[in-house]
Design brief:
single chain; alpha/beta; globular
Length: 362
């Protein structure tokens, strides 16, 4: 695309989304690029209220596609009015990148609201005494160790995990070994979200530190404005170094819009990696090598990883996710644990309430 200087929109009546479309540039060559402003487009449609709970998720995505195309049309109308070249419509891959982000935010909002109902019930049952509180934390993309899900764990656990690769790498001391000089790492993609559990007094302090006032663990997320989505993204940082697995880690969720035969195995890999890290913590604690979490048991690995498909699932999908945890087959003394505890199909938002109950009670 052509190189067009950015436009100063001071005082313009154009929406922030359209201004962003017009002024989006390729970071390498500064050319105009057809980038979809993900959170802004989401807010254009759902910034004042959530989609209907009975809405099909495919219809939710379609509504955002329509809004994105309308935004590009409006941007080009403006560019034509000032005699500037138009911007081509976004590619299919650009929409695919947005689809996942849009559905993750929407699922997070409905999941949060489901947990808020449960938290309120727990509070009422406890007559305002100490009770369990669940929070839904959206996880960032794992682009560095600093964004790894393990950064949520208590500092002593995070430090032990950080040291372990170097300890293993140092065991290869002979240059004759084919792996001499090679680093041993614990790298994998993050799941999309994690549900954490705290007692009510702890969550009160943690939540005050976030500074978030437009929703809390007992109240609903009202919409998908850019303010709300920014808050959802920020929770990971506020809950760093607060998680003891045996007490605070309820379960992970990995969400996909659709399943291809090759993509279903990403769930298996993610679940296996998450549970292997937890198993490592359990083994090190049990052997007295490091008292990382002495209450964590092998059986606690059950119910820790759920795969969510936002489309219908097949028998082949379910069978593939019956794969056992690698760590459960290394000893005949160990009972069976699965890499993925359950594959759940979610095709409309009304199903999320029952899915939250299933995950908490698994």
């Amino acid at each position: 695309m052509a190189h067009i200087p950015k436009i100063n929109f001071t005082g313009s009546a154009l929406s922030t989304t359209i201004q962003t479309i017009i002024n989006t540039r390729d970071q390498k060559n500064n050319n105009v690029t057809s980038g979809i402003p993900t959170t802004e487009t989401l807010a254009d449609v759902y910034g004042t209220g959530l989609p209907s709970s009975t809405m099909e998720i495919s219809d939710f995505v379609h509504s955002l596609h329509q809004q994105a195309l309308q935004n590009f049309n409006d941007a080009n109308v403006y560019l034509a009015s000032i005699g500037s070249s138009d911007i081509s419509l976004p590619s299919g891959s650009a929409f695919n990148n947005c689809n996942g982000k849009w559905t993750e935010y929407a699922y997070a909002a409905f999941a949060w609201n489901s947990l808020a109902k449960i938290n309120t019930t727990n509070k009422t049952t406890a007559q305002n005494g100490t009770h369990s509180v669940y929070v839904y934390i959206k996880l960032p993309n794992r682009n560095s160790e600093n964004n790894d899900w393990t950064q949520l764990l208590l500092p002593n656990i995070t430090q032990a995990l950080s040291n372990y690769p170097q300890t293993q790498s140092a065991k290869i001391v002979s240059p004759a070994n084919s792996n001499y000089g090679r680093r041993f790492e614990l790298i994998s993609s993050n799941p999309d979200a994690v549900i954490l559990k705290y007692d009510s007094s702890t969550i009160r302090t943690l939540w005050q530190n976030t500074g978030i006032t437009n929703f809390d663990p007992y109240s609903d997320i009202p919409n998908l404005s850019t303010d709300i989505t920014c808050h959802l993204d920020s929770l990971f940082n506020y809950f760093r170094n607060t998680v003891l697995p045996s007490s605070n880690l309820q379960c992970f969720l990995s969400i996909k819009n659709s399943i291809r035969p090759d993509r279903r195995y990403q769930w298996v890999h993610e679940g296996d990696h998450v549970k292997t890290i937890l198993q490592w913590i359990q083994v090190y604690s049990a052997m007295g090598m490091a008292p990382l979490d002495t209450a964590l048991t092998y059986n606690d690995l059950n119910g820790k990883f759920f795969a969510i498909s936002l489309s219908n699932v097949s028998n082949a999908d379910t069978e593939a996710l019956n794969t056992g945890l690698v760590g459960s087959i290394v000893s005949p003394m160990l009972g069976p644990v699965w890499a993925v505890d359950k594959l759940i199909s979610c095709t409309n938002f009304s199903q999320i309430d029952s899915q939250m109950q299933l995950m908490l009670n698994f």
